[in-house]
Fold this protein.
Amino acid sequence: MTDKILGRFISWTLILIISVTSIFFFILNVTVWLLTVLIDRRLVILHQLTCFWASFYTYIMPTWRIKIEGRKNVKRGACYMIVCNHQSQLDILVNFRLYVHFKFVSKAEIFKVPFIGWNMYLNRYIRLVRGEKSKVDRMMKDCEKALDGGSSVFFFPEGTRSKDGNIKDFKPGSFILAKKKEVPILPIVLNGTSDALPKYTMKTAGVHRIRVRVLPEIPFEKLKDLSVEETTELVRNTMIEGLASLKADMQEG
């Protein structure tokens, strides 16, 4: 009972902190945007500040123990198609802790969230409206524009969160873009977020270990002679193997 009460207290405290600090961070980000938008074409500075904003909540959460691995696999200044498995709404927060420059592809509903969603507009992150072909085409064109401008693009290729933590089938959009724009693919696997922040609730009793591992990039030269379907399967199998290895390492401590 004590753990449950403590968990609820931590949850509501975090929600209150997010509500209050989002106002401060948004004002700060608008100020930075106004000062840098004319000289920072890709909005790198604004994105780095957004990375800190997102990461701040994971830094202060006492029950989330997050470890980032494989940073050396990210080449400075490279333009990637970044793909990651999807277990929880917490996934994007922990990926922001990489402090890698990218344009995040997110469902349109998130852009409507006060302050947080407005900041996504400022960063020129990319809206996805599911089920409408014209809107999906618009999203693909926005991704192409970001890649042409030298910004990596971040996708969850499963589309929705996995219910059991295993990697589901991938949608082809990110791989169509990688082949068309001839960019390498940077796969990321994570584990533990579904326990830390399950759907429709927040578990805060006990400690939740979360691991994010950046796998070696898959260069375009390895993909250029493959079909989109073969590329999708190659990346998915690579990430399945990477996730299995990550889970095994977590079990060993």
